[in-house]
TrEMBL record:
The chain crosses the membrane at residues 42-61, 125-145, 157-177, 222-244, 256-276, 296-321. It is a multi-pass membrane protein. Its main location: membrane. Keywords: Cell membrane, Membrane, Transmembrane, Transmembrane helix. This is Flippase-like domain-containing protein. It is found in: Cell membrane. It comes from the Bacteria. The keyword Nucleotidyltransferase does not apply. InterPro entries: L-PG_synthase/AglD (IPR022791). The keyword Glycoprotein does not apply. Pfam families: LPG_synthase_TM (PF03706).
Length: 339
């Protein structure tokens, strides 16, 4: 049953990617895309790639602080696990990279995989807070060209909805941690209209998950978590600005921030492995809001996706080879924890 569900999600994602690719390419003049690539200043690619890996390294640093209540883990283990996890997200469906990342580190450091995965949920929560901060800053500072007022209003509405959903998740997790039995009992009552197997699977999983969440309360370590989050996303946004400059597109930094927010939401949408289609659509439609020509916007999207796709795959496979890790075996072990 798990396998069938897994395949269903995969094919739904492939279908969404295919539809988006058709929408993106059907009105494109290939000659103008080639002209955009010929005009590109490729010297911007090297710093863009370096900054992308700096962002991953900062993720490893933040992960170290999240793991401190369990074990003082070295960056020599954390950085390769982070890269392998993101490589897996690019190659495997259903965002299995998160489980791969937890499994690889747990095996190397002799930690409980469930507890390690719990730290990655906290990791994503810090990402969510930071992205929300970027979104709020962008909504109050970005100025779209004339005629795009409806888009700007739509962005604000989307920001408020996202904020409300995110606050709801935070409240639920706080209740789950502080009043575990009460929250699980309430959830069980809410799930009564559904088949019994749903509650039988979800409630024990949540109980095990919340038991594994531990976070330092030391001010210095909490400050390190927040500072590292800001650096992570600053070094993720900077390459967007550099790629735009490589194509001769001069936009304020708030434009790069807005495009990054679009990309964050895009990778949440079911898609084929590597976020093909969803990633490109988010970038293209984000740039169209700034009156960037469609062919130029698609060229930017292809380069940005390539920067975030190919280098991490190459380095990820290097770490798999160096540490004699089988991606197939890791995928199978990770799939067992998901299904």
């Amino acid at each position: 049953m798990a396998k069938a569900g897994f395949d269903k999600r995969l094919w739904i994602g492939i279908g969404i990617s295919a539809v988006l690719l058709v929408m993106l390419f059907r009105q494109i003049d290939g000659r103008q895309v080639l002209a955009a690539f010929r005009s590109m200043d490729y010297r911007y690619l090297v710093p863009s790639i370096i900054l992308t890996f700096v962002s991953y390294y900062c993720r490893a640093i933040r992960w170290r602080y999240l793991l401190l209540p369990q074990k003082a883990t070295s960056l020599a283990s954390l950085f390769p696990a982070t890269i392998v996890g993101y490589m897996a997200n690019n190659l495997l469906p259903a965002r299995l990279g998160e489980f791969v990342r937890a499994y690889v580190l747990a095996e190397k450091e002799r930690l409980d995989p469930s507890s390690v995965f719990a730290t990655l949920v906290l990791d994503r929560l810090f990402d969510g807070f930071t992205v929300l901060l970027i979104l709020v800053l962008t909504l109050f500072t970005v100025r779209l060209p004339e005629g795009m007022e409806p888009v700007q209003e739509g962005l604000k509405l989307g920001g408020y909805v996202t904020l409300a959903l995110y606050v709801g998740v935070i409240v639920f997790l706080v209740l789950l941690k502080r009043r575990t039995h009460w929250t699980l009992d309430l959830l069980g009552r809410l799930l009564r209209p559904f088949p019994a197997r749903v509650a039988e699977k979800i409630i024990p999983l949540l109980g095990s998950f919340i038991a594994g969440i531990r976070m330092s309360s030391r001010p210095a370590e909490l400050a390190a978590l927040f500072v590292s989050s800001l650096v992570i996303w600053s070094t993720a946004i900077w390459p967007v600005d550099l790629v735009l400059r490589s194509f001769g597109i001069s936009l304020p930094v708030t434009a790069s921030m807005l495009i990054m927010v679009f990309l964050v939401f895009a990778v949440m949408v079911p898609a084929s492995p590597g976020y093909v289609g969803t990633y490109h659509a988010a970038c293209v439609y984000g740039l169209l809001a700034f009156n960037v020509q469609r062919e130029m916007a698609l060229s930017v999207a292809l380069v940005m996706h390539g920067i975030n796709f190919f280098p991490v795959i190459l380095v990820g496979f290097y770490y798999l080879w160096r540490d004699n890790i089988s991606l197939r075996n890791v995928e199978e072990q990770s799939a067992k924890h998901t299904g």
